[in-house]
Each structure stands twice: as C-alpha cells, then as structure tokens.
Amino acid sequence: MKCLQKIYFLTWIGVLLVALASCTSSPEPATRNIFSVSATIEPPIAIKAGEPVIHHLSDNPTPEIIDLTTRPEPVKIPADFYITMQNFNTEHGLAMSSIIYGFRDKAGNLWFGTSGNGVSKYDGKRFTNYFSSHGLIHNMVRSIYEDRKGNIWFGTYGGVSIYNGIYFENLTTEHGLADNNVSRIHEDKNGHFWISTFNGLSRLNPNGNDAGIQRFTNYTTDDGLPGNSVESILEDSRGNLWFATANGL
Fold this sequence. Notes:
It is built from one helix and 19 strands. The chain is mostly beta strands and 249 residues long.
C-alpha cells in the first residue's frame, strides 16, 4: 500500500513539473502593430518628370464668357417656408448641367467640373467656361484644387491641368504620372503635391532634387497601399497623410 502511495505521489509531482515547464516556455503573444510595414515591400519608383505641355490662352480660342444678364433668370423653387433654392443649368451659362465636382477658391470664385464639357468658373455675376480647346487637358473634370500660390489644379480623366490665369500646364503619364485618370490632388505642408489616380498614387516634388529636377514618386500596392484606386486624400494635424482606396485606408 505504501509503495502505491509513493508511486501516485511521484506521478503527481511529474505532471506538475511538466505543466510548469510548458507555462514558462510559452512566449508572450506579440502585440499587433497596425502601422507595421512588411519587409517585402519594394521602394517606390522615382521617375524624372518630363517637360509639361503648356497651352497659352492667347494661342487658343477665347474662353466662353456668359453674362447672366443676357440669360433667363435662374429658376427659384421654394425648398420650405423660409428657403428658396436657386437653380443654374446650361440655359443660364453653365458649361454642362451634369456636375462632378465643386470648389471655392481664395478669391471667392466657384469652380464646377463637369462630366464631359470642361469647367465653369462663377464669380457671382457670370460664368466663364473652359474646354479642351482652351488648353484644358480633358473635358471630364473630377477634382479641383488651389495651391498656396493661387494656381488652380484640375484632376481629369486625361491627366492634370494647372491653370495660373494665363496658361494651362498639363501633366500625363508621359511625364511620370502614375495614371491619367485622376481623382484628387493635395499639397502637403512640405509643398509636395499628391495626386491620386485609378492606378496608384503620385507625389510631385516641384522643387526637384539636389540637381533641381522635378520628380514623380509613384506608389502602388507593391509599396504598401491597400488598393491602387485612390479616391481621396487627407492630411491630419500631425502631417500624416491618409489615402482612401477601394480596398481600405
């Protein structure tokens, strides 16, 4: 009987030692870092920007300027008891009634990108319409942006047009842009321009590198983007850039 008790006691001690050894040898679960970067990510490709195509307004037809006083009064439709909605369409001078994007510049002008007939600028009294015949790179305008120098940037289905009030400067894939279908444009706090497209993201350094050469740096899913179709760009108070794609942020 005493022999059986010794065997039972030694067996219980052995089981306890095995359990303790397994507990001490198990590693702590790793804390997941949502901002970790895979070691397999390739560095982005830097492409020397080619000479942009410049279209002077003086070399092209005069932009279409339509004085609202020569057109019918905009239709006013009561929205409720106190508010009246004032509607504008092509009858009142708008380049096209189908609008994709609207933007207000620092001078208070309103810009409207259309789905196929250029862009309209409204100064409160008249519409000025710009088309591809005036130098705009494409008549379908998806985004409008004003940089810190006052230049107006247009993201189109044919590339980017930069308008300084005198001429259009056009950039496409031939100059290093990731794709000609442009969705958004943003100038970060360092003066770099981020251009989101349907096939990746481009960063343009207008000041160039040490040799003074303007450069495009293009990013795709190979460089860590969750998706190549980038729809929106946001810069937070810390200078971090957020990119909204078809496959996450």
